[in-house]
Amino acid sequence: MPASVPGIHHVTCITGDVQRNVDFYVTVLGLRFIKKTVNFDVPDTYHLYFADYLGTPGTAMTFFGWPHLPWRAQGAGQVAAVSFAIPSAAIDFWLARLRENGVEAIQSTRFDTDVVTFRDPDQLRLELVGQASDERWAPWPEGPVATENAIRGFHSVTLLVNEEGPSARFLTENFGFREVGREAGRVRFQTGEGGPSAVLELVADPDAPKGEEAIGTVHHVAWRASADDHELAWREALVGAGRQVTPVINRKYFRSIYFREPGGVLFEIATDQPGFTVDEPAESLGSALQLPPQYEGRRETLKFNLPPIVVPTPAAPAAPKAMEGMKESR
Ligand code: ZN
């Protein structure tokens, strides 16, 4: 087997309202809007990216803006929850922040770690997990959340499948993951060096209805390849393990292959290179519509047909003193 994938590269979901989506992820969650582009397969629809300051692999939550689709609850064969990493000391801050913004948030404990569960405006299930690492994370100095509380990219994804066996065997025997824990109907796996952004949890429910491609669902999760030859080695190994895998596709910011794990969840492997600064400098990421070369000739038509998006400039965080007061009043 090739060297295991180091962790999550990005997670891509479906929103029915791009402006509401941008407002929530930037203003409430404090992620930076780093790329406004189109879906490379459906170029008259948006692909929006929210991440840390630079779009470091492992921090990019992305959305296809597909308002024509129905809304559906997440189902079997899909990612059922996307979890972001926050410092453990930031749990109270986030509970208060979400509630102040009218977002219902529930606190629980899982694998001895605090978890805050809530939903985004499309009812997509999100979590904040109080276990973070600053190692590969570029803070957004102008962001609305103070650095000590800010989201540090992904912690994990939770897959919902009908049957545990096939997915668990695939992960451990064919995809380089290790089982590291079991708790209340869920199995935890790690890849690479483990820790935040390298965690996958599997929940099996034989009665869960099959998920559909719909607003409020995760479309796919992408895992990191450290380089092109790493990705190609994985392609060969996965084909050898009986998976149907696409050829390498150039996604401008990374090069990708796609396949389904046995439970039906769409996986991608995406290269760390070249990254999001390939077509605009770090300081102006997300400020203009970026198109891949094959659509530049259609720029004016595409721009005319896409709904305008206003990227909010959220207020700087409250002074540390004010936040202390907020904590005491809880
Ligand atoms: Zn992707």
Report on the architecture of this protein.
Helix content is 19%, strand content 31%. By secondary structure, it is of the alpha/beta class. The protein has one domain: 2,3-Dihydroxybiphenyl 1,2-Dioxygenase, domain 1, CATH 3.10.180.10. The protein has a 9-stranded mixed beta sheet. It has an 8-stranded mixed beta sheet with strand order 6-7-8-5-9-12-11-10, with helices on one face. The protein starts with 7 loop residues before the first strand and ends with a helix. 42% of the residues are buried. The C terminus is likely disordered. Zinc ion binds next to strand 1 and strand 13. The site of zinc ion has 5 residues, from strand 1 and strand 13.
